[in-house]
Each structure stands twice: as C-alpha cells, then as structure tokens.
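Supplementary Note 3. Input sequence used for the single-chain structure prediction.
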Amino acid sequence: MKALSRNISLDHPVSLVFELVGNDVCSGHPGIDHMTTPEEFRNNILKDWAYLDTVLPKGSHMVVEGVADGRILYNYMHNLTHPIGGMTYSTFYDFLNCVGVSPCWGWMNSNETARNMTTERAMELN
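The predicted structure, written as discrete structure tokens, is reproduced below.
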C-alpha cells in the first residue's frame, strides 16, 4: 500500500481492490489469543483508509473484500495429495503444526474446531 505512487491532483481516478485475505487470523501460534481483535482491526483499517485518502486521486473508488474463510480451501483440498507427494494436504498441515512452522495454524489444521474458531474470529473482523 505504501508503494502506491499516484499524483493526487493530476492522475485519473483509480479503482482499488483492498483485499484482506487472512493475515489477521493466521500465524503459526496455536489458539486465537494471538489473532487481531476486532477493535485493533477496526483501528488499523481506518488508519489504512485515511492514508489512502491522502494518496488516491479524487473520484477514486475502493472495493473492500473481507477476511477470507479459510475452511473453504481445507474442505476442497484436505484429501488431495500435496505437491511434495506421498501425503494429503491434511497430513501435511498436521506435520507443519507438529514442528511449529505452519503459516496458519487455525485454517491449516485437520482439527475442525480450530478451523471453526479461526473462521469465527475472521467473521468478527468482517
């Protein structure tokens, strides 16, 4: 976002897609205590939007997409063979969690309760 380079008074308006994906709920830490709280999320988003208001040309529009539901990927891929071969995505996710290197403990997890807790927080942020 900070790399955006526009001339606020000379450039034509832009259409900006503001996609949040899932970084506010994803990390390798088990549980939800490390996840962004709704209050922190709101404050951060408002700061981001205030910044964009100073760099986007007048008349620009922004489409904001909420935090994704990571359960969708798991539901479709958990039984498929991971590209490293020899194991399913579900098994690979559990391995990553076991050795503490998962980029998203909550959604990359065979434990449905963990995936649901992560989604619940994501929906609170949305």
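The beta strands are 15-19, 61-65. The longest strand covers residues 15-19.
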